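Our platform keeps sequence and structure together, in a single record for each protein. Nothing more is needed to write down the fold, since each code stands for a local backbone conformation. An entry from our holdings is shown next, in its original layout:
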Amino acid sequence: MYLVTFRLAPGEYDAEFHELNDAIQAAAEDTEGYLGKRTWHAPDDEEVLVVYYWETLDALESFGADSDHERAKRRWTEWYDAYEVTVTEVVEAYGSGFGEDANPFV
């Protein structure tokens, strides 16, 4: 499994951002190998972390080639003050305490 962590400092969002964001999410969900996402908002500032879960690196790369996703990457300065993407391969995942929600993507 692969995790893509998208860390962002939001800027100003307009209608075009929301339309493009919705199209990108739909493209992710339509990509074979997409497992889901989780979003966290920092309590002390506006920073947001979105973690996307992918079954394989090929699935992630397929999504990365989506035309809407490519367009959004070129235009990031219009909507974000800053962003950072980290791609991580999961070697092992374990734990307890979250019940049925412990690891919903595996």
